[in-house]
## 1
Amino acid sequence: MSSLIDMLQGALGEGGLGEISRKLGTDEGTAKCAVESAVPMLLGALSRNASSGNGAESLLGALMKDHDGSVLDNPAAVLENPQAGAGEGILKHVFGSRRSAVESGISKSSGLDLGSAGQLLTMMAPLVMGALGKTQRQNHLDAGGLTQMLGQEGSDLAKKQPQAMGMLGAILDADGDGDFDLGDAAKHGMKALGKFFKK
């Protein structure tokens, strides 16, 4: 499991999953499955974005300006009031027009409805960015170092769940056109996600 995910788990603690399940109105097993889908989705998309064009510079700028990791000191505040963590803005930058496909993937893999999947992403996005910002500061990473670190995170996840990360790439951009559309969904089958995100 990647270090960023370890950091998130440590911040959430034993009560975090219960808080997420209560907020979403579901059981802890479903919430756990959904989180295990959402976090790799976020990390994978961030890694992908950072590796292209000036994506790493843009991400570094966002981390330096708005994400110093302090959100991890009190994650319950974001879980209770997701809008306080600027989750919507983060998701817009991370997923763009592909957000609906990601929400659908989380819904299919966990059993959450689409609305709850979207709400979960809004909760988790600030925490993932906080973990990334904290790591960037602790290791004094520049844009290149950030790209390398995210690449390593993706590599670690790929070793643990190669099928999951392969499917993630398909969800983000199955046909290479930068947009996940219905044709992509039909080609790959969203139902396949359920088996890939389980340990």
## 2
Amino acid sequence: MTFTPELKSVKTHEVPNWFHDAKLGIFIHLGLFSVPAFAVTGTDLVNSMKKGPVQHFINNPYAEWYLNSLRIKESPTYKYHNEVYGDDFKYDDFVPIFNKEIEKWDPEKWADIFKEIGAKYVVFTTKHGDGFLLWHSKYPNPKKKNYMTKRNLVGDLTKAIKSRDLKMGFYYSSCWDWSFNEIPVTNIKTFLTNGPTDPEYTEYVNNHWRELIDDYEPSILWSDMGYPPNTNINELFSYFYNKISDGVVNDRWIQTSPSFRKLIESRLTGALISWFGKRMLKKGKNIAFKPPHYDFLTPEYTQSKEILEEKWETCRGIGNSFGYNKFETENDYLSVDELIYLFVDIVSKNGNLLLNVGPMVDGTIPRLQLERLIGLGKWLEVNGEAIFGTRPWIIAEGKTMNDLNLRYTQKDDILYAIVLNKLNTIITINSIIVNENTTIHLLGYNGKLEWYQEGMNLKIILPEKIEVSPAYSFKISPQPRNAS
């Protein structure tokens, strides 16, 4: 169908099946911040926010926020930068280092890894908050000369990803650009008013998004921090959907008008909003507003506790930062088992996982991150059938008789019951009633399993020898009845 630049028209766009089926995407944060590769360690976004926004921005665990943190003189980043690089070394001085090191990068190797582990799409940072462009744009930064990469990273990676039949998406910091606004984000008020509102910046952003759509034909537009005001964003959405019929857009396109920003600047309203924002952040909740149109929600370092009707996608790093933080240790990273549990839980509740890779400045994927990716991929080789192409069941969570955690997915007339623990010789699934013609398989094991119904519970007898795994997927056909 043809979309017109009105909200009523773009809201008729439906989330395509490929995005429902995909389940696993790879987020990539690479930029000038990859050179210093520094941020506070030992805490993630949610726990950092609970300390309050002022302390969070001083001790930001996100390495990709290096420039913002550098502008806060009380921050560990400011201290680190002056000790390592000196007071005269500016953030822009990272540009030649970045351009030299990134020549070593092999995008084909990345694409092979992502394909091998089972990822279905990739979202790459084209411009983060620092404003540095990772493609050869016809619209250079009007505030800084040569503020784009010499190598066309967007073009090189897009070619490699698409050649392996994976979908390509682009992250772009639409509302924030710290090369246009040098005032750092330090609290709730500056968080909500940091984006430039002048016509020059709005045109700059509009031109970039259209250029990325025209030149690289992405399947995902992943905006961040909102969108400049005083422009019809539905023109961009309709342009994208008419060109990429099965494309999707995320939920971070809210437009905050200059008049609303002035209201935030007032003492009374500003204090009220700050109070509300602090309260939400300390509860670990997002304070972002939903725009009028989007295809999927994007909780960050959090996930839904129940099945959502709306499509959603959790984004998070394997560690506590999106950009590479060379000071993170094993303790800052999810283990392979934790990553698998997280992923299965998300999928059971109608979500996708956009799992971030923060490469070193030369394109090397750090060892700890690579180990987790490979571990997840090995589990998916056996259990991918219970993940990809599935949909949520009537319920997402369950328990066994001995209190092991279960997650459910379904496909056609098949139910997958995934046990998130090690197994004994017999497993009893509570509140599941099957019929006499039911067959049960354990993914990765050849042959049917013996079972019997015991009241409202299903007992499954396991084979004597099964491979040790963080989680086990039982394939039950036809679908049983939930008795709870």
